[in-house]
Amino acid sequence: MGRLPARPSFLYFASTMNAQNITIVGATGAVGVELLRVLERRNFPVASLKLLASARSAGKTLEFKGKSYAVAELKADAFKGVDIAFFSAGAARSREFAPAARAAGAIVIDNSSAFRMDPTVPLVVPEVNAADLAWHNGLIANPNCSAAVLVPAVWPIHLAAGVKKIVVSTYQAASGAGAAAMRELEDQVHQYAEGKELTRAVFPHQIAFNLFSHNTKVAENGYNDEENKVIEETRKMFHMPHLAIVPTCIRVPVLRAHSESITLELERPLSPAEARAILAKAPGVKLVDDPVNNHFPMPIEATGDLDVHVGRIRRDLSNPNGLVMFVSGDQLLKGAAWNAVQIAEELAKPARAAQAAE
């Protein structure tokens, strides 16, 4: 599997791709709102747009390209005529309603954990394994946000020098737990500044001015659910079922964009200069590596960017085949909404080829 070419510009997609009938399930959530923004940002050709959410959100309106769209209640009969259904309403809703969407003829791009490890469902980050889209059967899974930020930076290095082991520590923003978690962080900061008691509703611990192990259940192997997702999903996307991965996932008081410290053990030595040259040309990656000015990836700069920022590239002094780097990536974009839209753009490529051959 070779390196993918750089992404075409949004104007190229707008001019060559047939307009699609789009549905967003979970439209009022943090990822649903970002999906709308990314579709507009990419000028994705939308023939019709249907926004779906729970009954309590029905009737709300959201803006897309200057027009207001009413949110309808999610029901099994809501997918007639839909080409692409973006699901971002949690695993339970995906399991319940994805079959109805597929039965209606829609391709489901699912942001939840419901189908990621199903061997019949491709789990895709386009910079890594777009070729797996060839065997989808109307259902494609988006990876966990931590894995989605990790793999665009590691994959080009793997192609060049072979990755034997990944040790990764994550610094995960509140955005990974949704809009309510982001509000909780902001509320706690205000409460602290005003000398008030800090209240908690989303996280089990205070998030403002604190950090803690990712708030998911610890499994029998000693790793929490988030860490096990990083292991299993990276292995699946890399087609390396026995790849050694040691993750530690931590929640930090950052509103948006996850960061990760990554140590790689490689099959052969790769110098930092070689790694920088590779990553500077890699799709989906922005090299931010300026030791002179001590300027490296930061979540505040990665926020809003479609690319994963990569830097702090250096040798692992304990291992001649080791390489260390630091990355930051917008969890709501590359970790969710942008990756989903990127999959939809990739799906259009065979159709364009067929049109060109006619």
Can you give me a brief rundown of this structure?
The protein is of the alpha/beta class. The protein is built from ten helices and 14 strands. The protein has two domains: 156 residues, NAD(P)-binding Rossmann-like Domain (Rossmann fold, 3-Layer(aba) Sandwich), CATH 3.40.50.720; 185 residues, Dihydrodipicolinate Reductase, domain 2, CATH 3.30.360.10.
Describe it for me?
This protein has helices at residues 10-16, 30-41, 91-103, 126-129, 145-161, 179-193, 225-238, 272-281, 299-302, 333-357; strands at 20-25, 46-53, 61-64, 67-73, 84-87, 107-110, 139-141, 163-172, 212-213, 244-251, 258-266, 285-287, 308-315, 322-329. The protein is α/β, with parallel strands linked by helices and 358 residues long. It has 2 domains: 10-143 and 336-357, Rossmann fold (3-Layer(aba) Sandwich); 147-331, Dihydrodipicolinate Reductase, domain 2 (2-Layer Sandwich), CATH 3.30.360. The strands form 2 sheets. It has a 7-stranded mixed β-sheet, sandwiched between helices. It has a 7-stranded mixed β-sheet with strand order 9-10-8-11-14-13-12.
